[in-house]
Structures are given as C-alpha cells and as structure tokens.
Protein 1
Amino acid sequence: MLYDSVPKLFAQAAEKLEAEFEKLPKFEIAQDGCATVEAMAKVLAETAHRLGDNYPYFHPLYAGQMMRPPHPIARAAYALAMKINPNNHARDGGRASSVMEIEAVNQIAAIFGWKEHLGHLTSGGTFANLEALWMAGQLRPGERIVGSEQAHYTHQRISGVLKLEYKAIAADGAGRMRLDALEEELRRGGVGTVVATLGTTAMGAVDPLDEILELKKKYGFRVHVDAAYGGYFKLIEKSLEAPARRAYAAIGRADSIVIDPHKHGLQPFGCGCVLFKDPSVGRFYKHDSPYTYFTSNELHLGEISLECSRPGAAAVALWATERLLPPVAGGEFAQGLEKGRRAALDLDRRLRAEARFASLTASAPELDMVVWAVRADSGEEASERAQKVFDASARRGLHLALVQLPGSWFGIPESLEKAESTITCLRSVLMKPEHEAWLNEIWKRLSEACEEVVG
C-alpha cells in the first residue's frame, strides 16, 4: 500500500537531507523543556486521541464539505521541509523553497496557458482574492467591484476592508451570474472589476465567463476569476457540459485568477495561489526594507506579495506533488478529477429518479458538487426534512452538508412570508476519486436515511 510505504520513504529522504549538511560542525541541539521520549510519546498519544474527535474527512463516506486528504507525497515533502522550516518571504529565509515555489506556480499558470505572469502562493483563497481585489483597487481606484450573489462571501467582506464599493449581481436557477443583471449594473457606470466564479462554494456553479468577457469589450472593466474551488477543472474542460466548457476555454483571457491547491490540488491546508496576467502589476508591491534582503540581488517573493512570512514547506509540498503528478490534461491527476465528476453525475441521476428528492430544475452538476432538496409541500417542511435526512445519514456514517438556496430552484413552493425564500438543502462534494467506486454505498445509506425521515 502506498500509505504504508510513506514512513520508510520519509526516513530515507530525511537521511538524504541530513547528508546535504554533513560538512557543518557537530553541535548539541537544545531540548526545549528537556522533554523525554516517554513524555513526547504520551503527548502524541493524547494528540491522536483528541484528533479522533473529527469527521472522517479522508474517507469516501465523508461527502460534505470541500475536504480531502493531502497526497502522501505532499505530507512527506511538507514534513521534510520542516527540518529546515524555510520562510518564503525572502531568498534569505527560503533559498531552495523560493525557487521551488516559483517553479510550482509556473506549472499552475501553465494550466491556464499563461507563460508570462506574476504570481505566488498564499495562505489560502481568501488572502489570494484579497490580493486580487487590492490590485483591482490599485489599477482602478474608486471604481466598484461586482460579483454574483453566489460568489464567496469573502469578496464583499474583502471589498469592505479595502474600502471598495461592492455590488452583488443576481444569479439564475443554476447558480450562475445573470448577464442581464450584470449589464444593467454596468450601464450605471463606475464598475472597475467583475468577479467571475468558476466553481461556487455552495453548488459548484460556473459563471458564464466567456460572455462576461464579451461584455468587457463594450464596458472596459477588468475580470478577476475566482477559481479557488474549480480552477483545476480546466484540465478536463472537454468533459464538461457546453456552458462550463466555454467558460473554461476563456479563462486565459482574464486579468487575474485565484486557485486553491489545498482543494483539488492534493495539498495540506494553507496553500492558495494568485496569478496576474500582466507581470508589470508587480510595481504596486514595491517597498523598501532596511533589514531583510542583503544576500541576493534576485527578485524575491516578498517583493510580489502582501503577506510577509509564508511557509516554504507549503511550496515544497506542492512542488513535489506536481513532480509526481503533473497537472496536465490526460494525466493521472486529471483522471482523478474525471472520477469525481462522474460520481457527481451518477448521484444526480439517481436523485432525479427518486420521487422523494427534488433536484435543480435548471441544470445538472457543472463540476463535482451536487445539491438537492427533500420534496415537501412547503419550504419550511422541506428544510426540516433536509435537516433530518442530514442527521439520519450521519448516524449511518454518511456525512453530507447543508446549504441555503432558493426553493424555487428546486420547484419547492416558496414561503408565504417572503417573496424569494431560501430553504435548507443537502449538498455532496464528491471531490475524492474514491467517491466513484463508493457511490453505491453512499446511495444505499442516503436512501435508508430518507426512508427513516420521509417513509
């Protein structure tokens, strides 16, 4: 088994790393707190026990949030780098890992067809999007940011932090930004940047980027693509349905892109990436530091990022993973995305054939995420049933997620108190390749839970 081999492989690599520094004089490593091996073993055993109080994110029966285990090579490479504990803010703090970050980011940019670009890793999608919107404010000061009402909530929050006006644009029944609503906002003037989401957090919807870019020709705004969740699906765009396929085909024409390797990229959490198509935007990051950068005249990552200290270990883990599983169309990595996508389509097909469930009326899943409601005579009852199915599934070891979406998207009668009410729906994120093989078991447990609740 691959996982069983990791400790041995790590030990061999650790010996190799020790040999790289064998010419250094020997010294006694200070033992902080004078901890004994027995004391460490006790603490680690307690730590392992405490970590057991988690959902089994690594297992195929966990199909709720955007959670999957990092690849063994990423875990081992990260741990190996911690021997050095590099800081990728400057070449001084992370000489090798800085170069590895540049190479890893170049490979991500190549997914979108970019050879010339400016980019780096971040602590995650939130900070990556913050940098993208900060840059939007630098390039188009005083102008508004707009994004779909289904875009991640951090865009509105980030805009507030940056003192930029933000406007949410209505979405259609498939969760995509409505072009008519967008153009209505554009006619008002003053829009500097449109945020297009490729893979919304709630349901994996893909905004019509190709058509948004056509509007750009008329109105002259910038386009930022938040592909934190869905960016890697560019590798399998040919297997997507036509609207999503057209959007991914156009992604290289955007001004900036965010992607999270800690989602589909098999990395530990704390690994996002921001890319700018025009390298000259690096001028906005320029700063003077009197104390940090004296040993190298080469461009360092601290000169093109807002974050200062950043873990070089994250770059090492990503670099190693890309060496083992290159993110290229048709490769083993891309095949894993295909499996998750097929699992989502299979689950959606089964849900549509089950009278007790209500699926999206506008479209099938665009990526590997499925949302559905429990059929009822009212939105309130549908929400109650969804919560009960969620709980009943968990009792059977199947872990789903809950999400609030308009009931009208599922043909559920709206609340009499609200013109556009939302209901509680069920969501499944089938991002593990193993989900395809486990779909029958997932369906069995879901059906049993529904039988318990609805009958």
Protein 2
Amino acid sequence: MAVESLGRLILYIGVILVLIGGFFILVGRVPWFGRLPGDFIYRREGLTIFLPITTMVLVSLVLTLLLNIVWRR
C-alpha cells in the first residue's frame, strides 16, 4: 500500500512540474510580463536590481483565484 501511494505522489509531482514548466514557457512569450508599471529596475555601473512588485502581485492574485476555484469544496 505504501508503494502505491508513493507512486501516485510521484505522478502528481510530475504533472505539477509539467504545468509549471508550461506556464514559464507561455510567460516567456508575453512581452509585457515583468515590465509592468511598478516593477522597479535600479541600474548602476556593475549593479542591476530588479524588483517585480506589480508582476508578483498579479501572479499572486491569479494563483489565488485559480486555487480557490480548484479547491473549493
């Protein structure tokens, strides 16, 4: 019984990794993602600091909505 549950867990983890990988491939094709107003870039000689605050708030809202729809009981 323990081996069967371990197998299912590995399959679920694999599916989740495939979905995350697909998400990153699609996001890479969206030209405005990561360049929204509120995403701060500080550039100086030999130093670049990127703070994607607005992008992370948007990602958080979308994931919150999706997870609430999926896991609603």
